[in-house]
Every structure is written in C-alpha cells, then in structure tokens.
C-alpha cells in the first residue's frame, strides 16, 4: 500500500448540513509515530471532521484514506486500520477490564494475534487492575481501558476526541505519557482533538488548526516561530522555585510545568535581564529556554479572517 508513512490522509473533504457548508475542501495528513493536535474554535468543524474520518457520517466530496484504504470504496479495510474514542468509551461497569477486552475483541473481524491481549494490558499499564470490575476504576483508568479497546486490533491510526475531559491533573499527565509511548513504541499516528492548548503543547509533535471548516495552518509545536519583540513562554529551571516564582511574577504570568517555572508574556529581549535579576536574588539557574506559546500562535491564527 502507498503512503505507509502517512496512515491518515484527508483529501479535499467537504460537508454540508442544513444547507450550510460546514467543512470546505479540507485536506491534511498525519505521519506514523507522531501525535497531532486538532485545534479550532467551537463550531469550526472538528467533531464533524472526526465523524467523517471514522465513517459515522458521510462526506459530500473528497475522500479519507486510512492505512492506504479509501473510506469511500474500501470502507471495511479502512476502518480496520483505525481506532477511535469519539465520546466517552462505552464500557461494561459490571465486568472486569479483561472481560471487557475479550468481549470487544470478539466483535472484531480481525482475529487477535496470540498474546495481543496481555500486550495491550501491559501497554496501557492496567496489569494491576485488569481483573477488577470496571466500576472500581478511576476515570483515568477507564480512559486507558477505552484506549486499549481502540488499539486491540493494531490500528495504524488512533483518534481521540477530548480525551482529558474529566481527568484530574495526575490522570492527564499519565494519559499524556502513555500516548507519547504508544506513538513511539507502536508507531501509531495519533490525532487528538482538545480545547486544552497547554496540554496539546506538552503532548503533541504538531498541531493542525482549523477555522470555519478549513485548515488554516499546521504547526510544529516544538519549533514555533518568534522574533525578539514577540511574546514568548520562557522556561526556567531554578534551585529555589518559590523565591523565583515571586520574582518572575513582575514580568508576567508564572505557572509550574514539571520541574520548570514557565513565564508567560515576556519577550526574548527581556530574558537576559531576567536571568541577571535571578542571579542577584541568589537563585541558582540550571536551565533557560523559550518559545512562543501555542496559545499565542493559536489565537493569532484563529482571530484572522479566513480567505
């Protein structure tokens, strides 16, 4: 099959509902082993696009190819290549996690490879709870079990619509780590639709931004463009976070991100003087980096008029 490096290709897709064209000649693709954020304002067409990709609704024009198969002409083969959670995963609370997996595996036309069930259980880190009833699971555990169901048949593409909804910070962090490992180790392409821009920035390799049913940009999250006079997010690794946070607050909004303090709203030109100020405060510095935040870029893009 062609395009193995791009297991999901959306080609010139359009869709009208109630006489309004809500998806307009949309095209994008995702690469294997990478996580893509799928971003856009409310009403921009994210959920409609996802529903067309997974064949829950039809498209008026264009095509979607999954694993090289056309969703229009080779629907069964295409859908066998995709796993998705479009809403909350449907699970049987009165059954154990293992029995849920066995039940759903029997519904698939693709027979599981020997040992696949145990492999997936380990992959989503549910070994300790897989034989407990799902009603005993935390929301984060249920989300991971839902992902396990989605990847049982070894899809080349995984699509998640607002996967962090309802999760606490610990659950969000665990899900982020798991998805990164899944993309890298299983070479799965992952498309994540979310309103949490800060989480997309931490989780994703690239971000596809849409507005009014059109793709308006695709960004490499780790390499957002900035100039000296533009606002950036500056990351500081320091020996006294409490004292540093108090000092940095005069320059902008400060938040904690794992072992770093992130200063939003400063510029590249200000960073050297900020570092000098931290040193004068007798605060040790072991890391400084900066980038324009995804939030800034997103708002800049979505506030522009669509041509």
TrEMBL record:
GO terms for molecular function: ATP binding. It comes from the Bacteria. SUPFAM superfamilies: P-loop containing nucleoside triphosphate hydrolases. The keyword Iron-sulfur does not apply. PROSITE patterns: ABC_TRANSPORTER_1, ABC_TRANSPORTER_2. Pfam families: ABC_tran (PF00005). InterPro entries: AAA+_ATPase, ABC_transporter-like_ATP-bd, ABC_transporter-like_CS, P-loop_NTPase. Coiled coil: none annotated. Residues 8-237 form the ABC transporter domain. Keywords: ATP-binding, Nucleotide-binding, Transport. Belongs to the ABC transporter superfamily. This is ABC-2 type transport system ATP-binding protein. It comes from Alkalicoccobacillus murimartini.
